[in-house]
Amino acid sequence: MIIGILALQGDFIEHIHMLEKLGVKTAEIRKPGELDQVQGLIIPGGESTTMMKLMHSFGLIDPIKQFAAGKLPVWGTCAGLICIASNVHNPDSTPMETLGLMNITVTRNAFGRQVDSFETTLQIAELQDGPFPGVFIRAPYIEKAGKGVEVLAALPDGRIVAARQGNLLATSFHPELTSDSRLHRYFSELIPV
Ligand code: GLN
């Protein structure tokens, strides 16, 4: 099993390090053909509009859509969550194109300026052994989880920050910036062997 990490922009190296720690093989994905060698894909945190532009230039939009349609697992963290969402609300209302894989409506840069970045503990359904460290950096949140979407975690005010829809996983926060590898293990276990 090899997990691909979209390596156009953002914090892909940290995902690779986390998976290596778990003994999972990884491959950096920059070209469409490289998707043929992997059975799962992580779209990392970074800047979602830049990442979407780069996916266009590298011819990756349709290949990633096909990858997800083939039921192989795709996980978007933070900016990656925005890229896989079907609908995005920008604070300034500018429309944004995405991959449109997951039936969620997401609000970008959703937290006020003084809490642009924060850490909090999260209870994540499906994870054993206590709360998970949530590292939020100019994070989006899931405003609406549509049909078929299971909510995995929310903040105390009810804002959804982790969800799954079959082979698709979305987290607003950055597990790759912590030393807790449980979500990376959970994702690797979604991959059919
Ligand atoms: N604010 C970024 C965006 O909208 C996401 C931030 C992140 O990935 N840490 O794309």
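^ glutamine complex. The chain has a mean pLDDT of 96. The CA atoms of residues 44 and 159 lie 21 Å apart.
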